[in-house]
Amino acid sequence: MGAKLSVNLLLRASFYRLWRSASFWIAEAVMFAAALFELAVSYPLRRQTGILDNRYMLFALMSGVVLSAFCSLFVGAEYSDGTLRNKITAGHSRAAVYLANLLTCSSAGVLVCLGYILPMAAAGIPLMGGFERPLPAILWFTLCAFLMTASLCAIFTMLALLNANKAVVAIICIFLAYFLLFLGIYLNSRLTEQAVIPAREYIENGQILVREAMPNPAYVQGIKRKIFEVLYDLPGCQAVELVATAEACPVRLPLVSLGVIAASTAAGIALFRRKDLK
User: Fold this and answer.
1) Measured distance CA(2)–CA(77) in Å, rounded
2) Are 275 and 162 in contact (CB under 8 A)?
3) What is the C-alpha to C-alpha distance for residues 155 and 99, in angstroms, rounded to an integer?
4) For residue 132, what pLDDT is reported?
5) Taking the model in full, what pTM does it have?
């Protein structure tokens, strides 16, 4: 009961600080502006099938980079302002302090995503005629993206609480977010290669020639493909998968996200308990 009360008190303080955080409102403004930009770009193409579906999920690509900056600055302020040591001195456990920051950053991550989703849905549905996918599929994709965002926030929170240097943490988190995003793009390009290059006709010196079907040397197979598929499910890489897939979001993606949250939180609390805060 005491630990629960401690977390509740810390959460109230963290959310109070969140509403007053410039980095949070800047993150919201960035996502809101991105939604307006996508709407402006998409409107002339509104007659194309599935245009709103494709634009809607783009928040998954942007959230990692935006939240890497937010989490590092928001949590890093705990060190620079001296509030972290004050909480420990006041009798709050390190686990409670860690969980309060994690829950606040994860909640902020969902709110930042909603900063893109709400204007995109509110204006996109009347302007572009709604989604091609059924509503349950859209909601499932959104839930998968929220869990992926929470898993990234869990990683960023762990890094920020284990390093008191706010500038260094910001650089590491932003680099990690970009690395995972570009890794996802690379893995998507490799995993979507066709196993066989189809036959095609072409003209050479006025003659019609036929190139027969042949194995694609760029096709990834065997154990290498299995490794690529595992990496593709990592947070950050998942963002590309969520945007690129035309099928339903696989159940394994939210399970991977939950696993990352659990593993990073357990490791983060264990290391945070041993950290010297002096």
Assistant:
1) 26
2) yes
3) 13
4) 81
5) 0.89
